[in-house]
Amino acid sequence: MTAHVAIITGAASGIGKHWAEVLSKKIGEYQLVLADSNMEGLRSAFAPNEQIILRALDIRSAEQWQALIEETLKRFGRIDHLFNIAGANRPLFLRDQPLDAIDRVIDINLKGALSGMKLVGEVMLKQKAGHIVNVASLAGVSPTPGNALYSAAKGGLRNASIATAIEWRKLGVAVTAISPDLVDTPVLTERLDSAGEEAALAFSGATLTVLDLEKAFWKAMRDKPLEMNLPRWRGWLTKLNHANPSLMLWLYESMKRRGMRRLEKIRKERNV
To answer: Which residues form the catalytic set?
Structure first.
């Protein structure tokens, strides 16, 4: 059996690290290129070998994407999967965001991911085979007060993913956008003490785990859907709000109160 070649961004922590660990245990089934801007974290989590490449990657750099792709092709000869997981976010009301945060949030969560999708996609189109999974967010399905920049970036990524999926499907390349609710990662724990009302809506729904994302990745690889929203019930709610944005005017205060209660509960559970 020929091993599948997969690139995983954001592999040094959180969702990306867990998924890389899962695939790395499938000995002989996957050849991995694990990429992250945090090379120290990457090296502490994984050891390079004949089946695993560790690569520093600032996803905002097209040149670094090109170098990573060239190294992948030189070593493994093809690219079957791209898991675009790297991202960054810190909820703040727009009035409190520094001006340079606009570039940072858009560059990392949208432009960087799109650069990877385009450049890796070009290789897959030549192969007439491949699958790209872009991790977006439910904040990109429904505009989220307190997360305006992140909503803009992840909404753009979701829309671009679906549009590209339709463009490329007949050419042999699938693209899936996975939009999860809040995911429990080390970054979440680090920010619990400073989170305020701006983060309330993020805590108003479900708190997913990396295991939920693992299940979603396997399903995406099997079925290759245009998009997946996690959890499904929250996905339908966000789509309803997207179709009728004025609903948020009515729901915001109650959802904010719910989110703040859940935030306080999590803080107590973790002694933050």
So the answer is: 150
Contact partners, residue 166, CB within 8 Å, separation at least 6: 226
The answer to whether 181 and 206 are in contact (CB under 8 A) is yes
- Tens digits of residue pLDDT in 37-64: 999 999 999 999 999 999 999 999 999 9
Distance CA 112, CA 108 (A): 5
CATH fold of 4-186+204-244, please?
Rossmann fold (3.40.50)
Q: How far is CA 183 from the centre of its chain?
A: 10
Q: What letter does residue 54 receive in the DSSP assignment?
A: E
Q: Which one, of 182, 42, 192, lies nearest residue 32 by Cα? A: 42
**Residue partners of 258: CB distance under 8 A and separation at least 6:** 200, 204
Sign of the CA dihedral 51, 56, 60, 66?
A: negative
Q: Which residues are within 8 A (CB) of 66 and not within 5 positions of it... i.e. 6 or more apart?
A: 119
pTM over 0.85: yes
